[in-house]
Amino acid sequence: MGEEFQINYANEYWCSPDWYWYPGRFQDLDMWLVCSGNGKAWLNRDTYELSRGSCFLFRPGVQGYIEHDKNRPLHVLAVHFSWLTENESLPNLYRHFTEIELLETLLYRLIQAYQTQKTVAAKRWLGAAVQTLQEADNDIKNRFTAPYEKLLKKFCKDIRQEPHRWWSVSELAEQAGVCPDHFSRIFREAIGMGPEEFIISSRIAMAKKQLRFSDLPLKRIAELCGYNTVQFFNRQFKDKTGITPGQFRRDYP
Fold first, then answer.
1. Which of 116, 119, 137 is nearest to 127 (CA)?
2. What angle do CA 207, 30, 104 make, to 5 degrees?
3. 53-81 residue pLDDT tens
4. What is the pTM of this model?
5. Strands of 29-36's sheet, edge to edge?
6. Which domains are delineated in the chain?
């Protein structure tokens, strides 16, 4: 495992007391493990408390703000990489390891191999690190989401088929028999993103399909995808893809 990855950069960071970060427009994936320190992250409308064991896999579309306690600054291992093969679903954006020694060792070895230009070894360490994330996510999913798996699959199928509908997280939670906060947590653990983000993602996917395979005007495509105005459709499409619907139609015929 490892040949399907390309490592773009890898390093160890001791953040300065006045450090903070606005995650930018990611062009690749960024695995991020907190080895020590405390902080807080606000990402895609979700909030995360950071401490030893906090682990992110940032990807295109993630936006927000991260800060830390200046008296307990973050110490982070990070690797930017590209996934060269088709993959149905990435590991989740976030998980917390109570025991991080294995992943910490893998990332240290990855960074050392990368910085000494041992590319093959670095890719193998990365493959093992990604597998560790996948296994951790599966453990979480099996433990917390198994009772809701069938219902969540139905919700996802319905949203993908009818992204134009007004989907209420509160109503979905009521159907699942849980409170909205718990529903959002279950959904995120199972799907890898929150329900609101999934709804937006489904609308953007439908928009891309219509832009590529139909001659419908933007106003009609916006309506079919659940947007009340072309302006909001344009803004959200560009926010998620980096280009406008018009540019997408022109560049991806």
1. 119
2. 145
3. 999 999 888 888 999 999 999 999 999 99
4. 0.58
5. 5-14, 75-83, 29-36, 54-58, 94-96
6. 5-143 (2.60.120.280), 147-251 (1.10.10.60)
